[in-house]
Design brief:
This protein has about 600 residues and is α/β, with parallel strands linked by helices. It has 19 helices and 29 strands. It has an eight-stranded antiparallel sheet. A seven-stranded antiparallel sheet has the order 5-6-7-8-12-13-14. The structure holds fructose -6-phosphate (F6R).
Amino acid sequence: MCGIIGYVGKSEATPILMDGLKRLEYRGYDSAGIAVAGPEGVTIERVEGKLAGLERLLAEKPVHGTTGIGHTRWATHGRPTETNAHPHRSGDIIIVHNGIIENYIELKKFLVGEGFEFTSETDTEVICHLIAYHCRKGDTTFRALARVREELHGSYALVVMNAREQGVLYFAKRGSPLVAGGGEKENLVASDIPALLPYTRDMIFLEDGDYGLIRENGIELYGADGKRIERKPQRIPWNALMAERGGYKHFMQKEIFEQPTVMLDVLAGRIQKDRGAITLEELDFLFDGSKLVFDRVSIIACGTSYHAGLVGKYLIESLARVPASVDLASEFRYREPLIDDRTLIIPISQSGETADTLAAQVMAREHGAKVVAICNVVGSSISRAANASIYTHAGPEIGVASTKAFTAQLAALYLLALYLAEKKGMADRKTMAARIDELLTLPRLMKNVLNCADHIREIAEEISDATHVLFIGRGANYPVALEGALKLKEISYMHAEGFAAGELKHGPIALIDHGVPVVAVAPRDAMRQKVLSNIEEVRARGAAVISVMTEGDAELAERSKYTIEIPEASWCITPILTALPMQLLAYYVADHKGTDVDQPRNLAKSVTVE
Ligand code: F6R
């Protein structure tokens, strides 16, 4: 939540900051601002609303200088107004902040007593006054920042500028992400990788407690204990083009259609077709010979990643016969779960920065659990805090609604379940070979489904005036129903709910009225006949059924107003195929309604506050 960036170099800072903020805008977009140090001092420009407003302002009033900081906001404390927008200033100290300061009321009281005047409703403003306070007492900016780190409770990634110092920016991090890297005679810090990609693919991931400074010719890094540290940059397997829209109307659309290619990347190097085996060497530590070093799996995640986790439970229990539970990370961390050194925790996260998932995982490790993260962002906090990570290799996901990361997570979970099954001796070579052969067809099967996009658009336009839409499914496709409803509500603002089809009779069926669209995820598997009965029940009450079904299922087609076909496949991979119509349906409804598909209201992509 919130994107921050700082630049020091030889080039004009404004276009670099604006480009960086555009690449970070998915993190928050209710106000934006920059501060640039030029020959005439520091200029701060801020606007309420999206970056486009700031861009227009800067076109009218250009700001020149080669050092600057920028911010795109997702409001926590204080409404999304210009006065609450960052950067905030206290005398010579100007800052941008991502995070939440929990003791800001107490600090504010102290600072007001010291004569500081507050102009915003934000928690952030205490930080710049506090640094200014210490500077006033004789500290250098660097020393003041080092002190302030100790005085703040909560989470922060900060970039600090002193109007009296040319060519230097200070930074500090705890709880919110920050990466640093540089090009030729220039250095940057930012909340996330995409902002730095045009300049470098070698990035330093800052750890909690780190602070330091950047100048044109270098990055100085200090650890929590104040000692200078050298940290090796990590090579990022993405390039700047991957974080661009590439001719599509929306990032979400691009990311939906990229999925067959992403699937190739997820599978690459992890399948030994000739041996009928899965390679996940990073997980070898989970075995003592053919014996597992854990007794049960506990999956933790939020939102879409949680839905992937629910599918994972079906796969892991059924294929590897290991008990698995799935929790929302925000609940798990506060419910005193039973965790010990025989528990394998699997946090699932696209961003690798979700605050609740990270905190739950850290807590689990403190109880001795082993942690294998399923994560998309190399070097992210969640992957760093895990014993090992299965990277999903989906490339940068910019659209706020998660799509390609979801199907990549499903594939990673399937690989994990197969790997455990094989190592435990639960799957013979023939079975493994058959499953692997099918996995390798996935990119093609996904393309087949995506080829139905125009048909799905027509259905989407038909249902776009509905007051609510229900999604039902069973087995491994029940979480897909939940995901279908989440996708629709988050980008089209239509009311949608997902249900286990067998639960309808226990209450939700009361919602069915004449013409209510019910999306039934009912591929041909062991549960299909059951879903068919549930379809009959909603039809009898007037629902307009949209069936997502295996091609050629005439029985289901007869009972549906609309059908969307997926190719024949085993139950283990159908969720990857049925997820695609869910995404397309939501996308086309939202596009038809004209909502802001990539930046839906009130949301931010990376949820770094709890
Ligand atoms: C919905 C969506 C969110 C995320 C959730 C967790 O489309 O994207 O529900 O799935 O915020 O985010 P990550 O996976 O980054 O931990």
